Amino acid sequence: MRTKYLQAFAVICILTGVSAFAQDKVLPSSPEQVTLSYAPVVKKTSPAVVNIYTKRVVQKRLSPFMADPMFEKLFGGMGMQGLSREQVESSLGSGVIVEGDGLIITNAHVVKDAQEIVVVLSDRREFDAKVSLSDERSDLAILRVDTKGELLPVAPLKPSEALEVGDIVIAIGNPFGVGQTVTSGIVSALARSTLNINDFNFFIQTDAAINPGNSGGPLVAMDGGVVGINSAIFSKSGGSLGIGFAIPSEMVATVIAAEKGGNHSSVISRTWVGINGQQVTADIAESLNLNRPAGVLITSIHSASPLLKEGMKVGDVVVKINGKEVHDTAELKFRLATMPLGENITLDVLRKGESKSFTTKAIAPPDSPARDATKIEGNNPLKGATFGNINPAVSVELNLAPDAKGVVVLDVASNQSASRLLARGDLLQAVNGMEVKDTKSLKEALNKAAKQNGFALVLERGGQKTQVVIR
């Protein structure tokens, strides 16, 4: 009798299972349903995920001894150009279509220096693509394809602010070129800012497996919304170790807005308020009589800052921007960078235990005083370099330190003497003991140096000062 009951129970289970699989799957709408399958989310999003194939031409040395000066002398000074050849390099990545007319988001590093870009949809259709905007500061790029009027499948952006640690997310991309792949995980951390991946260093951390080739693909919430663009992995071996990072969708939205606003250069105008600060540590919090270490202590305010006119002072602690908490300098930078120009910004601060608020308009960094681009000619080691004055716009473009001094290198001609000494973004602070504050004083210093025996230059690159003597 017991055997018959067991057999009957088995039949019921089998029939129930067949009935369940026969039903159409629906998008999960509760935590219980999420445990059943991610297939509805994947079916909804994956058609909008593309594989990106790029080709670029690079110069390859024919010998590892090409950098040796003696080797160059033996070959009559032909150097690297005389004994090198062009080679085509191919690479791959991922992207996501966010607008049906052919607007695709990916990472800037995926398409950097590419001469040819092909995107392949999940249904194997191929399109030639062009870079419409590449923003290296955020590591985001926008590609455009000609759909000839056909609408492509899209995956809509969703605010990453809606995420919580522990939420389930999926990553879709083309790891190692094996084809479109889906991995799942949870949000491990939000506002991760201890990295050095791009200029903003503000990421969503996930344990969804991300590998080479996933770069540029979407990080997707369970309702199918794109909450981030997968950008990097944390691994010495190059494979997934369960730690991946995605650029929040809010930053993606600012890049799209810039492209639609007609910005197709490599520099995007973002909100500037002219303040700099440092994270409030436990020691700082104690010295300021704060309840806990949180916020950003303002250490300097630019003379052109609109907040200076509103009454903000050095020593104020910014704790919120437009009602959202600010925990460190990376978050402050991110909040400002994703604020649309022209909108109101309200900063809540603590000053000697009292709460204050300051409201101003989001403005672009002013290009004042004039940069006065000055190209150096004549018989001197700086020939071929173009210098400019430092102002907020220049500082943002070249990612200069807030306390940068001197004149900055805006450009260097590749076939001139300065190319052996200078790079774009370098600072020149003195010539033969004469301080260089702007392009006017630079010209005066070079005129005097031309009458002397040699040049003694004080240069700064990446925060490191160097003195170069040329005779």
Describe the structure.
The chain has 471 residues and is of the alpha+beta class. It has 4 domains: 49-145, Trypsin-like serine proteases (Thrombin, subunit H); 160-260, Trypsin-like serine proteases (Thrombin, subunit H, Beta Barrel), CATH 2.40.10.10; 275-361, Pdz3 Domain (Roll); 374-470, Roll (Pdz3 Domain). 20% of the residues lie in helices and 34% in strands. It is built from 12 helices and 25 strands. The chain has helices at residues 2-22, 31-34, 39-45, 69-74, 79-82, 108-111, 249-260, 282-287, 306-310, 329-337, 392-398, 439-449, and strands spanning 49-61, 84-99, 103-106, 116-120, 126-135, 140-145, 168-173, 181-192, 203-206, 218-221, 226-233, 244-248, 275-279, 296-301, 317-321, 324-325, 344-351, 354-361, 374-375, 385-388, 407-412, 427-431, 434-435, 455-461, 464-470. The strands form 4 sheets. Strands 19, 20, 21, 22, 23, 24 and 25 form a 7-stranded antiparallel beta sheet that branches. Strands 1-2-3-6-5-4 form a 6-stranded antiparallel β-barrel. The model is unreliable at 1-23 and 70-82 (pLDDT under 50).
How would you describe this structure in keywords?
Thrombin, subunit H; six-stranded antiparallel barrel; 471 residues; seven-stranded antiparallel sheet; single chain; Pdz3 Domain; alpha+beta
